[in-house]
Specification:
- The chain is an alpha/beta fold.
- It has a single domain, classed as Thiamin diphosphate (ThDP)-binding fold, Pyr/PP domains (Rossmann fold), CATH 3.40.50.970.
- It has 9 helices and 8 strands.
- It has an 8-stranded mixed beta sheet, sandwiched between helices.
- Strand 5, helix 6 and strand 6 form a beta-alpha-beta unit.
- The longest helix has 14 residues.
- The radius of gyration is 18 Å and the shape is globular.
- The termini are far apart.
- About 45% of the residues are buried.
- InterPro entries: 2-oxoacid:Fd_oxidoreductase, OFOB, PFO_beta_C, THDP-binding, TPP_enzyme_TPP-bd.
- This is 2-oxoglutarate ferredoxin oxidoreductase subunit beta.
- GO terms for molecular function: iron-sulfur cluster binding; metal ion binding; oxidoreductase activity, acting on the aldehyde or oxo group of donors, iron-sulfur protein as acceptor; thiamine pyrophosphate binding.
- It comes from Methanolobus vulcani.
């Protein structure tokens, strides 16, 4: 039987009180609840405070380049589709530096889970505005306040027909754990955008600020495969911020189109030369 202890307990480089601790706890608990042993799991990341997560988990890990958590995660799932693959990234790492990869990973729909630590700031580089920073937020660089419209990752994902779209909050660990479980069990690309207070550099979107606004959706009021209604719900932000699953669309995954995977994990079966072209064509 798998336990939390199996995933280790490591000293971290995160600030005391960082929202990342709640996300790490939720990831561990979700994997234990699903009965996933460490050797069955791969956590891939890019660069940033969020991307240190693989260092603090006793499982397979890949810490790569800035904005590049999704390509190795996709490649690993193709090589061994029996793995539970999680890409851990941040709002700057994924929606900024890695935005192009985000768009095309949604198109391909690999069977991986993407967990975005969305703290609305660049934490590792000490407090610059990120793609999701609020208009008017002042930073060391944006001294007169942010004037660019913040990216709405849920609306973007739903508009692209991402097959599973959800939002959690680092201050609600039990609820976040449940969302991550659902995301991992979903077959296809799952996005879990996690509101994650940065206690050192984001003095606007604090735990207090979020706790006064977030609420768990017990019933969305629409069928989860209704993309228009899901898009409308994703636009709700301000005095009330919904948490939960916004959109689910069951559809073929990237791996379903690859004949070379039908005889077992790719790493165990050397594909014929003509089959290699199928893999190459899939990345167009």
């Amino acid at each position: 039987m798998v336990s939390i202890e199996d995933y280790g307990n490591f000293e971290t480089a995160w600030c005391p009180g960082c929202g990342n601790f709640g996300i790490l706890k939720a990831i561990k608990q979700a994997l234990v609840n699903l009965g996933r042993s460490p050797h069955e799991v791969l956590v891939a990341s890019g660069i940033g405070q969020s991307s240190k997560t693989p260092h603090y988990l006793n499982c397979n890990g890949f810490n790569g380049l800035h904005g590049r958590s999704l390509p190795p995660a996709t490649g690993a799932k193709i090589a061994n589709h029996e793995l539970t693959v999680i890409a851990v990234t941040g709002d700057g790492d994924c929606y900024g530096e890695g935005g192009n990869h985000f768009l095309h990973t949604v198109r391909r729909n690999p069977d991986i889970t993407m967990i975005v630590h969305d703290n609305q700031i660049y934490g590792l580089t000490k407090g610059q505005a990120s793609p999701t920073s609020e208009i008017g937020m002042k930073t060391k660089v944006q001294t007169h306040g942010v004037f660019n419209m913040p990216l709405n990752p849920l609306s973007l994902a739903i508009s692209l027909d991402c097959s599973f779209v959800a939002r959690g909050y680092a201050g609600k660990v039990s609820h976040l754990t449940s969302l991550i479980e659902k995301a991992i069990e979903h077959k296809g690309l799952s996005l879990v955008d996690v509101l994650q207070p940065c206690v050192s550099f984001n003095k606007l979107n604090t735990f207090k600020w979020y706790s006064e606004r977030v609420y768990e959706m017990e019933d969305t009021g629409y069928e989860l495969n209704n993309r228009v209604k899901a898009f409308e719900k994703s636009m709700e932000w301000g005095e009330k911020i919904p948490l939960g699953v916004f959109y689910v669309n069951e559809k073929p995954t990237f791996g379903d189109y690859l004949d070379v995977l039908r005889s077992g994990p790719l790493y165990k079966n050397k594909p014929a030369p003509e089959k290699v072209n199928d893999l190459i064509d899939g990345f167009v």
